[in-house]
Fold this sequence. Notes:
By secondary structure, the protein is mainly beta. The chain has two helices and 19 strands. The chain is globular, with a radius of gyration of 22 Å. It has helices spanning 2-20, 243-247; strands at 27-40, 50-62, 66-75, 81-83, 86-88, 90-104, 107-118, 144-155, 158-166, 174-183, 188-196, 209-221, 224-235, 261-262, 265-270, 279-286, 300-310, 313-321, 330-339. It has a domain at 1-97. Strand 12 and strand 13 form a beta hairpin. The strands form two sheets. It has a 16-stranded antiparallel β-barrel. Strands 4-5 form a two-stranded antiparallel sheet.
Amino acid sequence: MKYFTKKTSFWLMILALCFNAFASSGLSLTGNLQSQAKKNLNTENPTLDDFWIRANLGASYKSEALDAVISIRMFGPTFGNTIDSKKYDKVMADLYWANYKWNLHGQKINFKLGHWKTDWSESANFGTYVDADLKKRGFWLRDYTHDAMEIGWTYAFSQLHVMLATTNTKYSTGYLRIEETLKLNFPLEIKAAYRVNALDVMEKSAVLTHRVASKVSYSILSDLKVYGELAFIKTGKNSEVTASSVANNFAIAPEYEQGSSFLPFYLGIDIPSAKFLDHFYLELEYIKNRKKLNKDNDDLAYTISAVKSFGNSKAQLSVFSGDKLKRKDVSLALRLTTGF
């Protein structure tokens, strides 16, 4: 109970400070309740494969000079921690960042610091190859969180961001991430990014993995959009990085098999539904030799997603392929989010 009390009290104190400052200009409170269920139709077990309910509470601040966000995520005892054979509520930090902004004669400079997400994905199943782990497949598994500092520069239709992210408390392991976004005067958006785990070599032996990714999104009509993403991921070699050296903490385990390379891509279309749905996505993804990432998986995968808002709620239903492209190896997933 001490674990629950100390941790919960800390986050409640943070929220209290946010509530106390609610009257100040630019500050708003945020919150929602989310539930998600998933079922693989290829199994005879009638129960769900995964189910959870959680609440998110936080606050955001926006002004000409500063944007900031804090978000706290809470799970009940059924979906939370088990410590010493006892179940406790789980309260965890989800997002927290501050973005400082300067406008210099039409050029915008920003410095961002904290813990945040980047996601290029449309339906949350495929894409964001510059960040996501290709081994992860399925519903909402492609979002990625960074502990980082970032410098941005915006001029005309160009937005450039350079991020230095860490994976430990000493900033001795991590990566460099560079992203360029072109937002043109017509409904075309182009993104390109490069990422390399450059900080990993500072203290230990490591293998560099280079990621180059690009995305194009074009709105043919207001509610008809085509999009796609292509990436090249290359992992080098280092004879000093072995299973033994990693186990003895002399080296860092590589992201992918040494000497491997992958060329993942996916294509999608957001199809109009006469305003009945917010979005109706059809997507295909292809990764050659996917079995090197996931044993016995087919190279091709697909997803069909429908998104519908009603009142303060939004539902997303997805049908997506499992390990094999056969009729029964299909999963269903539903996420319901209600804001308050």
